[in-house]
């Protein structure tokens, strides 16, 4: 098949997306596909550029907001529907993370232009990107999620309704960017201000002490659960993208009944947001055994350290097979 892998973009997760996209492109080539790599910020990548970017890897911190803003002024995104490498592809593999790749706008543009793409459509993408709306739908579907408030909220209100500690985070970001663990009311306002740098909606959520779990969904089935044991207290940007900063166990060491419950919650969450193809659902498992859904990721990382590739491997699915299945799920046959 002719496949164009879309990557890069101008969100805070740009570097992660480049790492995912290049790896996907290489895997699909090993399956004999005719693959083009397209950075939505800079254009089609030649083999030399691909090699240089692959070697650069993901930095310890995301690119600055200023650097991203400069790139976004030159972004190709508005013209994507007219580019021959997009229009002539049998399937566009979306390896963007965050921002316009993940919020459903590019998916809507492709629907308008009749371009076939991997994963979830515009509605599900937008819902999953918005943690506040996601959590309302989770609750309606019987998926438990931590209690939360939206900013503005004062320290006393947070104390009364949630109790400390709380997590303050942008409602529509990823990669733990702009997120703070707040232990006392005095630290609330600066954390809210930090989160507002990244989003116009900020969430204050009850902190769930316990274990960090993640469940990949492929097709409409849950893959083996993963447990993440980060070196920092939170699974932050550095732990997510630096080798050795987190231990990941697939399958997670869980009692069979607990594992079945978490997988069931993950499938329910996937359906509640009308997701398609594949996704990764993040959970906290509290010390008292309750499982709380944090969010769904419709364009989960596909770097060598990423969780979905590890979950697939635990199910006996190699990385090229995983990419191939995601592509097939985007074709009319794969969906039926
Ligand atoms: N309510 C919470 N309780 C405990 N830890 C949390 C909570 N919310 C977020 N975290 C921590 O922050 C990480 C990122 O939060 P998440 O909601 O998954 O946002 P994203 O991954 O989109 O940045 C989680 O993986 C977890 O380690
Ligand atoms: Mg997450």
Q: What structural category do the secondary elements indicate?
A: alpha+beta
Low-confidence stretches: none
The sequence of SSEs as H and E is EHEEHHHEHHHHEHEEHEEEEHEHEEHHH
Under CATH, the topology of the largest domain can be stated as D-amino Acid Aminotransferase, Chain A, domain 1
**Bound small-molecule species:** adenosine-5'-diphosphate, magnesium ion
Q: Count of DSSP E strands?
A: 14
What's the structural domain tally?
Answer: 3
> Could you state the CATH homologous superfamily of the largest domain?
ATP-grasp fold, B domain
Report the C-alpha radius of gyration, rounded: 19 Å
From the coordinates shown, what is the CATH architecture of the largest domain? 2-Layer Sandwich
Provide a descriptive summary of the structure in words.
By secondary structure, the protein is of the alpha+beta class. It has three domains: 116 residues, Rossmann fold; 138 residues, ATP-grasp fold, B domain (D-amino Acid Aminotransferase, Chain A, domain 1), CATH 3.30.470.20; 59 residues, Dna Ligase, domain 1. The chain is 39% helix and 21% strand. It contains 15 helices and 14 strands. The strands form three sheets. Strands 9, 10, 11, 12, 13 and 14 form a six-stranded antiparallel sheet that branches. Strand 1, helix 1 and strand 2 form a beta-alpha-beta unit. It is globular, with a radius of gyration of 19 Å. The site of adenosine-5'-diphosphate (ADP) has 18 residues, from strand 8, strand 13 and strand 14.
């Amino acid at each position: 098949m002719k496949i164009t892998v879309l990557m890069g973009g101008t969100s805070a997760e740009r570097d992660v997306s480049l790492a995912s996209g290049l790896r996907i492109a290489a895997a699909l080539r090993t399956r004999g596909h005719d693959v083009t790599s397209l950075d939505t910020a800079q254009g089609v990548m030649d083999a030399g550029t691909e090699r240089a970017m692959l070697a650069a890897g993901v930095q310890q911190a995301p690119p600055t907001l200023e650097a991203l803003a400069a790139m976004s002024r030159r972004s190709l995104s508005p013209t994507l529907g007219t580019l021959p490498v997009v229009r002539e592809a049998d399937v566009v593999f979306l390896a963007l993370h965050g921002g316009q790749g993940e919020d459903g706008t590019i998916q809507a543009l492709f629907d308008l232009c009749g371009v076939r793409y991997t994963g979830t459509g515009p509605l599900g993408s937008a819902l999953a990107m918005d943690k506040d709306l996601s959590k309302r739908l989770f609750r309606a579907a019987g998926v438990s999620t931590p209690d939360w408030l939206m900013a503005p909220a004062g320290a006393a209100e947070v104390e009364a309704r949630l109790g400390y500690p709380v997590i303050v985070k942008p409602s529509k970001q990823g990669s733990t960017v702009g997120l703070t663990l707040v232990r006392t009311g005095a630290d609330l306002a600066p954390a809210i201000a930090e989160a507002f740098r990244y989003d116009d909606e900020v969430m204050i959520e009850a902190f769930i002490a316990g274990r960090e779990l993640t469940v990949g969904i492929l097709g409409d089935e849950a893959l083996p659960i993963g447990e993440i044991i980060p070196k920092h207290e939170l699974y932050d940007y550095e732990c997510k993208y630096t080798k050795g900063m987190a231990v990941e166990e697939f399958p997670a060491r869980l009692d069979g009944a607990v594992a079945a419950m978490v997988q069931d919650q993950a499938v329910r969450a996937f359906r509640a947001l009308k997701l398609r193809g594949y996704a990764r659902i993040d959970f906290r498992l509290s010390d008292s055994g309750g499982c709380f859904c944090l969010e769904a990721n419709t364009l989960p990382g596909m770097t060598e350290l990423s969780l979905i590739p590890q979950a697939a491997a635990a199910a006996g699915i190699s990385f090229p097979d995983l990419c191939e299945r995601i592509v097939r799920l985007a074709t009319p046959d794969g969906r039926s």
